[in-house]
Amino acid sequence: MKKKWLIGVGMVVLVGAMVTVAALQGQGSAPEVEVTQLVKDELSEEVMVSGTLMPRDQEQIFYQPERGELDVIKVEEGDKVKKGDTILDYKNPYSRVKASQSGTVIKVEEVPPSQAATRPAVVIADLEKQEVHAEVSEFEALKVEKGQSVTLESDALPGETWKGEVVRVAYLPAESDTGGGNDQVVYPVTVQPEEALPVKMGSKLMVVIQTQPTEALTLPQSAVVTRGEKSLVFVVEDGKAREREVKLGISDGERVEVRSGVEQDDDVIVEPPQGLKNGEEVTVR
């Protein structure tokens, strides 16, 4: 009986040892990786900025104290007006102001005479003709050009996008409101949507500008590992993963330009396993 008990214990120990060995072997096996090589491709870099939806055609009507005392503003916000409709009536019976364009009244304000020259009393706009006003940095302004395609998005309508086109890039930067010496230089950009957007005037939009396509040697963005300020890739050499620091260029979010660090015939690991170390053995799928 004792002998059988010892045999049973021995079998349990043997099976446990075999499982342990198998586990250790599994831990030491080389991770499987997928590789790719540099590919010549055309990339369009995305410039992403915030913009504001504005009417393209609008008329600002100012109170003119020299005409006399204002009698009545004959419109309210939301009113539809036609060209020639009376907007402002002065107490002088021969002095009135008429609309020079048709549209919707989007602003009505009683303005004190001291601010009459700078604040419009009434603003009329054609809400079907829209444009988006944005600003780009001086670096981005070198890449943004009239005619480039634009995608527009709004937080108010998640999941929806609209197409547009850059119709103007200012030659001069926007004037700074702060007057400080360290203000960022920005250039106004105007985008024209292909259709009227279903959001209110003044709404904030995400403006994604597609820059001019550039031919470049590229890798998938997923092949690049960022460590601090360094960009790295892993290249397979003699069955081992070797780190290479690379210099990157433009990116469209999926592929990225590689300017130096790898050669065209190098096998670069796509989506390197987390924790992969320099010199670690790998198996290529």
Automatic annotation (TrEMBL):
Residue span, YknX-like barrel-sandwich hybrid domain: 59-124
Pfam families: Beta-barrel_YknX, BSH_YknX, YknX_C
Domain YknX-like beta-barrel: 131-209
Superkingdom of this protein's organism: Bacteria
Segments of this protein annotated with the region Disordered: 261-285
The YknX-like C-terminal permuted SH3-like domain, residue ranges: 216-284
Protein name (record): Multidrug efflux pump subunit AcrA (Membrane-fusion protein)
Organism in which the protein naturally occurs: Desmospora profundinema
